[in-house]
Design goal:
Elements lengths: L2 E2 L2 E2 L6 H5 L7 H11 L12 H14 L3 H18 L2 H8 L13 H4 L11
Antiparallel strand pairs: 1-2
Length: about 120
């Protein structure tokens, strides 16, 4: 089992798909890593040698911010906005959509389950 950046990669999946299990690596970045190291995209994780896994690990450590560091950076950026009390920070604090979406209808993912309003009978 290959372990990269604290994540166990599934052994029976292709390398490109398995790398996307790491937070901060998407399809494009995974393809770029494989191309840079000369790893065929159709190969499975179980077919990789220990040297190739080590190369992937070193490339990710050197070039990318992933997993815990990325989560920490993102949360610190949101916390900074909330401390500044700018518009985006206030929206984060209230749990409302941050990027200008409408809230009269929709926005249920951000706002949570709809709350019943007392005395609204016909």
């Amino acid at each position: 089992m290959a372990r990269i950046a604290g994540v166990n990669l599934p052994t029976n999946k292709r390398v490109i798909i398995a790398l996307t299990y790491i937070h901060g690596i998407g399809r494009k970045t995974a393809v770029d890593i494989a191309t840079k190291l000369g790893i065929d995209q159709s190969r499975r994780v179980q077919d990789l040698s220990d040297a190739e896994v080590l190369q992937i690990r070193e490339t990710i450590d050197a070039d990318l911010t992933v997993e815990g560091d990325l989560r920490r950076t993102t949360s610190m950026n949101i916390k900074r906005l909330m401390d500044l009390a700018c518009y985006r920070g206030l929206r984060h604090r209230k749990g409302l959509p941050v990027r200008g979406q409408r809230t009269h209808t929709n926005a249920r993912t951000r706002k949570g389950k709809a709350k019943a309003i007392a005395g609204k009978k016909k």
